[in-house]
Amino acid sequence: MQYVVTNSQMKEAERRCDQSGISYYQMMENAGTRCAEFLMELLPENTRTVVMCGSGNNGGDGLVIARLLREHGRSVSVLLASGTPRTTDAAENLARLPIGTLVYSAEQYREAFRYAGCVVDCIYGTGFHGSLREKPVAILRTANHCAVRVAVDIPSGVNSDTGELDEHCFRPTHTLVIAAMKAGLLNAPASDILGEVRIMDIGIGEHCYEGNHVAFLTDDSLRRPFPPHGRNTHKGTFGRLVGFAGSLCYNGAAYMCASSALRSGVGLYFAACPVSAVKIIAAGLHEAVYVPLPETPDGFVDVDSAVLEEIVLPKFDMASAVIVGCGLGNSENTHRLTEFVIRRAACPVIIDADGINSIAGNIDVLKERTGDTILTPHPLEFSRITGLSVAQIQSDRLNAAKGFAQEYGVTLLLKGADTVIAAPDGRACVNSRACSGLSKGGSGDVLTGIIGAFTAQGVEPFRAACAGAYCHWKAADILCARMPAESILPTDIIAALPEVYSQK
Asked: Are 31 and 64 in contact (CB under 8 A)?
């Protein structure tokens, strides 16, 4: 498992690792080795690389990188951007540079960058805060013109805890995060400048992160989230999911939610939609059970107290999970239906899209819930229910999600390039894998259907949301190998889900 950490938590993990037998010096060696391996795979052999080193241990990582690149016959030079090393481990690695390695002072930075095809940033690391000084600004301004720009752990000029950045900061094409994801890198504006992000394992064991409840989703995390089943199964064994979704205008939302749920293992899906939407959806999706609901003249749900008690309520008794919101439209009827589901459904409830928007004026209704609840807002929807601006949310996504989940007793999945999943007990997970192929209307409906299916099959809500985020992204990632991301449709994502679930 990988973790998301603050600067202080990272220092504590390193201290525990040192005490358990892997020294700080060995961690530096491991970090430099992993980064050097990445660079040798990334760069043509004739690429001239400049490693910018600070005076601390991040600079020590850079000196290891330079040594290893030189030992493998690569063209590499070192720029001591902050003078000679101040830490013992970094100083030792400076002394270990192969004879003939070009080492430049900060004043010689223009000469150092001559003919450079790649620059590696190891100046500040996690210790940076405040503003950059004049000399580093001049160096970084020049470095940012290199074609390939690799930041080791943290781009210089970025606060690793908050995500704040100096306007003159290093702007990498690749960021190699050491050991664990730094919390600030999940926040705007830092999250927007990182380029491709990789996390480099340097041998710090899970026990060193004891007490840290924020994990980072990996390929090994949640490939196949289905609960085990024996031979004697039937459709009811795999859960019953009721989806209050869709309208005449947004019938696709209901279709994609239902279809992704069925592809994700649910045994029975009950599509509760306005009558006109049922007629459209049923023509293309034969596996769902349809529950026609009364509708307004423009094709949206029309639910009075009699409909709620006589048609909606009985569905709760047989459901193992309920979805509400996808494509319902923003109306008083949607508000009435969503609140009824929240108050009366004892099984887990997944609230998305219009369901979220409909309770923005009465968010405390969530505190009346007796069962598990999952909310899946994008930043604008989250803004509506919290009163925070989108900018405020994006500047501290992790804590915004965690705070809401704990206050309202829900599992919250905050969508975005760094999707945050937060549980009411303080646990959190981050899926930092981004794919522009998911940036189409309907993608969120697919995600809701996946999460609903996992939940209906008995998967614990937090794990269901984490698994849903992972599988949703993984399907898009598979498709990106076959077609441009811009061409991917939400229905393509659904079609690719069996490949995700087939992976061992």
From this structure: yes
Q: What is the pLDDT of residues 260-291, one digit of tens each?
A: 999 999 999 999 999 999 999 999 999 999 99
Provide CB contacts within 8 A for 103, sequence distance 6+. Answer: 77, 78, 80, 97
User: Which pair of tokens denotes residue 222?
Assistant: 């949640």
Structure tokens at 451: 């999460």
What is the Cα–Cα distance from 375 to 113, expressed in whole angstroms?
50
Alpha helices (H) in 20-72, listed in sequence order:
24-42, 57-71
The whole-angstrom distance between residue 217's C-alpha and the CA centroid of its chain comes to 8
Interaxial angle between packed helices 490-502 and 251-263, expressed in degrees from 0 to 180 and rounded to the nearest 10? 10
Residue 264 tokens read as 């994700």
Distances (CA, A) of 322 to 110, 346, 350: 62, 10, 6
Name the CATH topology of 238-502.
UDP-N-acetylmuramoyl-L-alanine:D-glutamate ligase (3.40.1190)
Q: How many other C-beta atoms are found inside a 10 Å radius of the C-beta of residue 244? A: 30
Give 292's Cβ-side CA count (13 Å radius): 11
The Cα 359–Cα 366 span in angstroms is: 9
CB 92 within 8 A of CB 64: no
| Residue with tokens 């009721």, as numbered in its chain | 242
pLDDT tens digits, one per residue of 112-133 = 999 999 999 999 988 888 899 9
**Length of the chain in terms of residues written:** 504
Q: What is the pTM of this model?
A: 0.84
Domain 2-212 part of CATH 3.40.190.10: no
Task: List CB contacts of 278: < 8 A, sequence separation 6 or more.
Answer: 271, 290, 292
Backbone angles phi, psi at 301, to 5 degrees: -60, 145
Q: Do domains 2-212 and 238-502 have the same CATH topology?
A: no
What residues contact residue 423 under an 8 Å CB cut-off, 6+ apart?
A: 405, 411, 461, 462
* d(C-alpha 414, C-alpha 131), whole Å: 30
Q: What is 427-464 written as a DSSP string? A: -EEEE----GGG-STTHHHHHHHHHHHHHHTT--HHHH
**Domain boundaries, given as residue ranges, for the chain:** 2-212, 238-502
